[in-house]
Write a structure and sequence with these properties.
heterodimer; A: MetI-like fold; 2 domains; extended; B: 2 domains
Chain lengths: 367, 292
């Protein structure tokens, strides 16, 4: 094959430019990133400009970093070397982030839970003894258990019931949209919504909270729903039930639609009424989904923080573990107690971790 | 079957179906009225809110003099919800794009590249999905203090990326690994590198899965309170909407005209995203909830 001289020169020129780009680009990126991160942190920078720079850095910066890493590896001399390094360019950042934000903190939190508040002196299991004997924290544990039972029970059974009901009405989509709308609302926003429902005015004035207005309409005494246990904790739980039921309903509804028609017909032929059909055919068929949803809600409830923080800050015996941990960290600056509380939450989710990994193995071997 | 019993059957069916509709409508009302009350109140003057229940306006909704935008003006300017809105945007958009990018590269490697320790690493990622955030707070906060990252947006982006990766990798992997092998092989034969295959072919095919996770993560970050509170703090310069709102509840617990307008402001964007991309959101929930 005859190669013209000009082509060779073109290829050379191209290779040289590309080589220069791959040298200059990382350096330039480094300085641009460094400058813009400084710009974002500088409180004197105009807000909107900060936003634009932040978006550019946060969105494009990460892509450029991957591009540079890939470019460098693809320039390495040996094919074998390239082949074996490239996967680490792809998974490396993810693994690094997991190490920094999840694996190292887990080990470190367990370690810190064995030290006193400033983490200087080793105290063995003293922090655990403290959190299990201190009356205030015992209230938090008791409340968490109540939350787990009431909220999970209510969400799952309501979600299932609503899924079955809306399955039979004509405007199913609309009805569902109403119920899972709260899923887009933050716990902080929902807390304001419900604080307003629970609002309390002295008897002499008109009630502006819906709940007290209803109570008064039935000749009852208006009351401060958030002040006295156990009603106040129930009032907070209602918020989470309101937020989470939509999730349960969506999953259950999809599962119910997967129940084969023949199975239902066969049940009807055998003379089952709708209730028997529900408990003897539908529920056993979607058992797997019910378990999944229950686990997901249990884990979410276990970590509940926002609602309690916004509504009562854990006062009036409404404390829960996650809020208490925040209090230990920020009010008491006691990292020993805080870490011990976190470890308790961690221990509680270990069964879910084991089940997840076991399911993954089963899927893999099934393939 | 005689006409009498048939008539009874029809009657029973009509009754049971109207009972069904009544129950469904009641439930829908129960789930909507709280938000509706907030929305209506946010347009009433402070005086009106405190002297009569919001439901009283339903009698005369057309009396225009009772409606006002004053609450919004006040909460945006003097209560700092305007700045908080921008802060939420700065925190949320990169914290949505970054985990997607990192997870897309990782999911691709887990699905289509060979490397030592692949299966063990993936099992760890899946195990970390349910890890409570609380386990990370103290160590990461200390790390950030040494690196001078507390109270900065890049710190929050990284934290959300780190915490979001397990779920993101899991969701994207389950989609990316289902792409037919022939498609990937054909691209390789055409001389495409892994980087090119990912950025052109895979991203395009996996777009629905990416959209699902994006909606999910966007709502999660926008609505998050704990991470913003710990890593960005309560100063007005950096506070996000949820943080600012919880501060308002703490200081102006009875100023309903501010709280209702502030809460509704913080809900506008997530509600818009939710309604316009509901399909992707539901798909994400269904894919994610298979995990158990």
């Amino acid at each position: 094959m005859v190669v013209k001289k000009q082509d060779v020169r073109n290829v050379d020129a191209k290779a040289v430019t590309r080589f220069l780009v791959s040298l200059v680009a990382p350096v330039a990126t480094f300085f641009i990133l460094k400058w813009s991160l400084g710009f974002i942190r500088d409180e004197a920078s105009p807000k909107l400009l900060t936003m634009l720079v932040a978006l550019a850095v946060g969105v494009l910066g990460i892509w450029v970093l991957y591009w540079i890493a890939n470019d460098w590896v693809s320039r390495l001399p040996f094919g074998r070397l390239r082949e074996s390094l490239l996967p680490f360019v792809f998974v490396g950042p993810a693994v690094l982030l997991l190490l920094v934000f999840m694996v190292y903190p887990t080990v470190n939190t367990i370690y810190l839970s064995l030290f006193e508040k400033r983490s200087d002196n080793f105290v063995g299991l003293d922090n655990y003894v403290y959190i299990f004997t201190e009356p205030d924290i015992r209230v938090a544990f008791q409340n968490n258990i109540k939350w787990l039972i009431v909220v999970t029970g209510a969400c799952v059974s309501l979600g299932l019931a609503i899924a079955v009901l809306v399955d039979r009405v004509r405007m199913e989509g609309v009805a569902k949209a109403f119920i899972f709308l709260p899923m887009a609302i933050s716990s902080a926003g929902a807390s304001v919504i419900w604080r307003f429902i629970y609002a309390f005015q002295p008897v002499s004035r008109a009630q502006i909270g819906l709940l007290n207005a209803i109570v008064v309409a039935f000749d009852g005494e208006p009351r401060g729903w958030l002040l006295r246990p156990p009603v106040n904790s129930l009032a907070l739980m209602a918020i989470m039930i309101w937020l989470q039921t939509g999730f349960c309903m969506v999953v259950m509804s999809a599962a119910i639609k997967g129940v084969p028609r023949e199975l239902l017909e066969a049940g009807r032929m055998d003379g089952c009424n709708e209730f028997q059909l529900f408990f003897n055919v539908i529920v056993p068929y979607i058992r797997g989904n019910v378990i999944t949803v229950t686990t997901t809600v249990l884990i979410a409830v276990l970590k509940v923080f926002d609602i309690v923080y916004v509504m009562t800050r854990g006062n009036y015996d409404t404390e829960v573990i996650a809020n208490r941990m925040y209090v230990e960290m920020y009010r008491f600056l006691n990292f020993g107690h805080g870490s011990a509380l976190a470890v308790v939450l961690f221990l509680a989710v270990i069964p879910a971790i084991v089940v997840n990994i076991r399911n993954l193995r089963r899927q893999r071997s099934g393939q | 079957m005689n006409t009498h019993s048939r008539a009874r059957q029809v009657l029973r069916r009509v009754l049971s179906s109207s009972a069904l509709y009544t129950i469904v409508i009641l439930i829908c009302a129960l789930w909507t009225i709280p938000t509706l009350g907030l929305l209506i109140s946010s347009f009433r003057s402070a005086n009106d809110i405190n002297s009569s229940g919001w439901w009283t306006v339903l009698g005369q909704p057309l009396e225009l003099s009772q409606w006002t935008l004053e609450n919004y003006r006040e909460v945006i300017s003097s209560s700092g919800m305007g700045t908080a809105f921008v802060n939420s945007l700065i925190a949320t958009i990169p914290a949505t794009v970054m985990p997607i990018t990192v997870a897309a590269f990782a999911a691709y490697a887990f699905a289509w590249m060979e490397f030592p320790g692949r299966d063990v690493l993936f099992a760890i990622v899946v195990g970390l999905i349910v890890m409570p955030l609380q386990m990370a707070l103290i160590p990461v906060l200390r790390l950030y203090t040494t690196l001078d990252l507390t109270g900065t947006f890049p710190g929050v982006w990284l934290a959300h990326t780190g915490f979001g990766i397990p779920m993101a990798v899991y969701l994207l992997y389950s989609f990316i690994s289902q792409i037919p092998r022939d498609l990937i092989e054909a691209a390789k034969i055409d001389g495409a590198s892994h980087f090119q295959i990912l950025t052109t072919l895979v991203i395009r095919i996996a777009a629905p899965a990416i959209a699902s996770f994006a909606v999910f993560q966007f709502l999660w970050v926008w609505n998050d309170l704990l991470i913003s509170l710990v890593f960005l703090g309560t100063s007005r310069e950096t506070a996000t909407m949820t943080v600012r709102l919880s501060e308002l509840v703490g200081t102006f617990g009875q100023h309903w005209h501010l709280l209702t307008a502030g809460a509704f402001l913080s809900m506008i964007l997530p509600l818009l995203v939710f309604f316009s991309l509901q399909r992707y959101f539901v798909r994400g929930i269904l894919a994610g909830s298979v995990k158990g």
